[in-house]
Amino acid sequence: MSTKVLIVDDEVEFASTLAERLALRNYDVKAVYNAEDAITTAQSDPPDVVLLDLRMPGIGGLEVLKTLKKFDPTIEVILVTGQPETEGADEGIPTGLFDYIMKPVDMGELIVKINNADQKRNLSKHS
Amino acid sequence: MKIRDKLILGFSLYILLATIFVFFSYREIRTITTRLAYVEVVDDITNDVLEVRRNEKNFFLVRNEESLKGIKEYLSALKKDINGIKVEIIKAIETDNYITMKKAITEYEYYVDNLANNFESQEKLTVMIRTAGKQIEDRLSGKELNEFLILRKYEKNIMLYKDQKLYEAFKSLKPLNLEGNKEIEKYRILVHNLYEIYKDDKDSEDKSRLKAREIQSVAEELSKKEREYISLTLKRMAKLPLFGLLAIIVLGAIISIQFSVNIATPIKRLEEITKKIAMGDFSETIEVKGKDEIASLGRSFNQMEKRILDSKSALQNAVEVAVATCNEKQAQLIATEKLAILGLFAAGVAHEINNPLAIINEKAGLMKDILEMSEDFKHKTKFLNLLEAIFESINRCRTVTHRILGFARKTEVSIEILDVNDIIKGATVFLEKEILYKNIRLDLDLRENLPEVRSDKGQLQQVFLNILKNAIDAVDNGGLVAVNTDLKDETMVKVSIKDNGHGISGENLKHIFEPFFTTKGKGKGTGIGLSITYGIVKNLGGNILLESEDNKGTTFIVEIPINSELTKGQVA
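Output (structure tokens, whole complex):
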């Protein structure tokens, strides 16, 4: 069973293209373009790994992260951010953020991070 | 001499002068008083002398007892007066005069005694002669009587005129009839004796008159002298007030001039200079002369002026330094501000670019994915190469945007106790490959026992990494990079990083810390490193300085506070 990945980013072109590329690499990918859709989709069809943009109109990425973790703590979230290093991530770690990656994304690095996150989710699901 | 002393001296001189004046006046009055007493004495003497002479004159004229008594009476009064004269009067009327007078009086007295004796004898003899004549006349008669009467006629004339010729005639008369008459012989002897007394009396009279004249002349001389003396004294006394007044006026004038020269003029001068100083003119000073209060005041004034001038110039210097410092700080502030604005602007730009860049990256990535899955076609390799070129450009862009964003974002400082030497050693490890590749000599001169600093490890690492990287880029193959750590002062650690590379020209030095400014070739540098370095060092409370000469190399000096003012968690 392939890893379910949910991409949450208001930048449609970015999110859709990334989704397509991950799909080509045999991931079960969905892309949504706002926070509300992200929560609805995750609740109806829970993903293994969420690629989350922090800066979004509406309730914002951090709120999404908190809601998802409350709904299912085993869902791993990787922050995909335009800002470097730990901004946002520092705030995210206490709420269960797994990792972060900078835009523009290096595909190899992203794949490693998704796989790591998936492994962690599998471990926590079965323990 | 002090002014107070001068005033006292001037006043004392005045008093002294007045005292001298009064003293002399008093002395002159005393002299006159004394002299007046002398004049009285001398007048008494003169009076006595005149009385003696008057009686003497009478005596010589009438030969009576009364005149003789008068002479004796006044002579004794004269003697009494003369003997009663006090020693100081004797001295005043001159001792010689006194002695002369006394001697003359004694001699005169002798002659007067003679005269008195003679007068007595004459009286007796006259009576005796007359009695004898009468008796003889009674006894004689005739021729004898006639002859005798001739004798008696002579006798009367002799008594009347006391003339020598008459006596010679009397003597030569030889009355023949009376020769041998004892009584007549006796009578003739009596007349002879009388004549002898006359002779002697005449002598005494002449001599006494002479002496009396002498005494009178001395007395008159004395009287005259005393009067002259008093007259002279009075004349002198009349001049005294005139001279005294003149002396007081002259002394007053001298004292006034002295006062003016020594006090008023210097004070006027002081006033002038004070006014000038008040107007800001410090060009003149007081000329100090002497040792009095004015001179002391002048010296103090000059000192004060110098102190004011010194303070003024010190103040000017301090103000100049303060203004220069202020200008420098302002320039630094403006530069920092400028850099901050530039940073913010750059961050905005970077952020805006970053999103489309991410899209380009994904689109190109998808193209590559698809191409790689596609079967071979004519330009497949070329497309893949083109895509690689796109990725390369994207990566360059990403480096730029990430660094800009890293510089501009709010940075949380994490304070730890750090050894700067360790951080530098750590930074060099990252650059080993490049150092080896360019065959660069890296000299580390790290001071032992360098105090540890309280600062952010990651940020300091980035600082030294950036600067070292810059230095390595600046030198040619086989170049030299020297790092030295030391204490700047008690509060700062100083790190200097020196290279012998190309150096930075003066114009470029001005812009070296601005973002996007680079001297490296196209595609080699982003122009972000040093502006980030600058921001971090300032953020940590330190300083970064740059010394560089074209073609001679560059020295970066980083100063790090030992006790960073930033505490953990503080957001800069």
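Confidence is low (pLDDT under 50) at residues 85-89 of chain A.
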